[in-house]
Amino acid sequence: MSKTVLHCKDIVKTYGEAEAAVLALQGVTLDVYRGEMMMLVGPSGCGKTTFVSCISGLLDFDSGVCDILGKDITSMDTEEVVAFRGRHIGFVFQSFNLLPALTCVENVALPLTIANADKAQSYTKAKVLLDAVGLGEKYDSKPKHLSGGEQQRVAVARALVHEPDLIICDEPTSSLDHQTGQAVMQLLQKMKNETHITIIVVTHDNRIYKYGDRMAHMEDGKIRKVEQLG
C-alpha cells in the first residue's frame, strides 16, 4: 500500500457550548495516501470544510487522532503548526484569495516570501511554475487583469511553489465555467501525476469527480463511505 500522508481517526469537533453546542464532526476517520486525489463530497453543512480546517491545523478539534506525514498535529504548539503547514500543505480556494496589489509572480512566490526565502530564487521558482500552468506571459499582471480561470491557475501555482506534500482544494471549480473548471482539474491531475503530490478536493461539482482516485462521502459530520473511482 502507498505511504499514508493523512491518517485521521475519530475526529470530533463541536462549535459553541451547552445548549448552543453544535456537533460538526462526529468521529471522522479517513486515510489518504501519497499520490492520490481524494474527492470529499457531501451536502452543504455536513462538515467538509470543518474537517479540512481541522486536518490543516486551522481549527482545533475536541478529540481524535490526526497525523500528517506521521506527525501528530495535536502535539504541536501554534508556532509549530504554522511552520508545519507552511512547509507541507498548500491551499487552493474557490475565491482564489490572490492579493490584488501583487503581480502574478509576487502572488505565487508569497509562501516563500513568508518563509523568508531568497527573493531572487523565489521569483525564479514562481516564474517556472507560471510557465508550467500556461501563464508565462502574465508574470507582471495583477489579478484584476486575469480571467477567473487564470486566477485559479495562479492559485494552483502558489499552492505548489513550496513543494508541499498535501494540497487542500476547497471548491476549486465553483467560481468557474465548465470548460475552465475542467482545465484547472486537468492541471491539478497533471501536477499530481508528475510529482506524486497528494490532493484533497472538497467539491459539490459532479463534473470533476472523474479526476479523483477515490471519493469520501460525508454526511452529518461523518465519513459514510469511501469508494474507488475510475
Summarize the structure.
This protein has 230 residues and is α/β, with parallel strands linked by helices. The chain is 33% helix and 28% strand. The chain has one domain (4-228): Rossmann fold.
Helix-strand layout with pairing:
Blueprint: E1 4-15, E2 22-33, E3 37-41, H1 48-55, E4 63-68, E5 71-72, H2 78-88, E6 89-93, H3 104-114, H4 119-132, H5 148-160, E7 166-170, H6 178-195, E8 198-202, E9 214-219, E10 222-228
Parallel strand pairs: 3-8, 3-9, 6-7, 7-8
Antiparallel strand pairs: 1-2, 1-4, 4-5, 9-10
Helix pairs in contact: 3-4, 3-5, 4-5, 5-6
Descriptive account of the structure:
The protein is an alpha/beta fold and about 230 residues long. The chain has one domain (about 5-230): P-loop containing nucleotide triphosphate hydrolases (Rossmann fold, 3-Layer(aba) Sandwich), CATH 3.40.50.300. It is built from 6 helices and 10 strands, in the order βββαββαβαααβαβββ. It has helices at about 50-55, 80-90, 105-115, 120-130, 150-160, 180-195, and strands at about 5-15, 20-35, 35-40, 65-70, 70, 90-95, 165-170, 200, 215-220, 220-230. Strands 6-7-8-3-9-10 form a 6-stranded mixed sheet. A 4-stranded antiparallel sheet has the order 2-1-4-5, covered by helices on one side. Helix 5 (about 150-160) runs parallel beside helix 6. About 40% of the residues are buried. The model has no long low-confidence stretch (mean pLDDT about 90).
